[in-house]
Amino acid sequence: MEYISSTRMKVIDSNCEYLGLTSLQLMENAGASVAREIKSLFTGGKVTFIAGKGNNGGDAFVAARHLAYYDSFDVHVLLIGKKHSIKTDEAIKNFELLKYCNIKVSEIFDSSSVEFRESIKDTDIIVDGILGTGFQGDIKQPESSLIDTINSSGKFIISIDSPSGLNVDETNVKKAINANKTFTFHKLKKSYKDPSVKKFTGDIKVINLGICTDAEKYVGKGNFKSLSLPRKDNHKGDAGKILIVGGGDYFGAPSLAALGALRTGADIVTIALPKKIKNIVATYSPNFIIKDLRGDFL
After folding, report:
1. Are 267 and 289 in contact (CB under 8 A)?
2. YjeF C-terminal domain location, by residue (predicted)?
3. Of 51, 174, 278, 281, which residue is the least packed, with the fewest Cβ within 10 Å?
4. pTM summary value
5. Which residues touch 278 (CB under 8 Å, ≥6 apart)?
6. How many angstroms separate the CA atoms of 26 and 21, rounded?
7. Structural domain boundaries in the chain
8. Strands (E), 93-236
9. What does each C-alpha distance from 164 to 127, 212, 255 come to in angstroms?
10. What H or E segment, with its residue span, contains residue 281?
């Protein structure tokens, strides 16, 4: 079973975009798949989608639109905040489509909202699209109190990709949605391998989004986006420390490897090699730290 980090998932998404599979298409695939899964679980009922302002909320907008096609489902979308605070173009486009689908859409700002509490009370199913797999840190308000209310509702809860509040790269969870079911995209997320996370995810099903295999197999644009750039307050060593061991009569290999390490951004490059060639290798760059070893060969 394969697990993936949030950073790696972002890399793959970006590589897909470069290859021609846009983030808007991926969002459509994600939301449509969630709607199909809900329909396979339930014959109908009242479904409340609670959407944040990022792409996780965008997935929820798409899922709501597809599910509303079926007369047996009564769909309501609750947006946390105002529509002009939606953060991504893809989510904005899918939010705007809701007005053409006979879907009730409400803006909510805290858990004490009468409309929020009545919606939670009257619904059969809650779909969590509040915070996505990029979430890190502490949950802010009003999301924190909304999550508390959702968890205490006693309703069937479905999370999109990841339960809101869960850092998918770590297992130390302070608070998160307690989902009955999680539909996660492409692959299981890193933290899901820990049994303690099960109480938040519930049953997990992996959904295929049609991601290009080359986007994952080869290095692409997304891989370079994920590389950290030097900061103005960096100290020597913050960008990486590399030790290269080699040498003997043939000292070209460790020299070239060390030069390559400098070119890729490492700022402390140490070469350990026989004493008799250390002065030759040192001439390649004043940035090398040379450690001589006993003997003429390794």
Report:
1. no
2. 219-298
3. 174
4. 0.79
5. 290, 292
6. 7
7. 3-224, 231-293
8. 104-108, 125-129, 156-160, 181-185, 188-189, 203-207
9. 11, 27, 49
10. helix 278-282
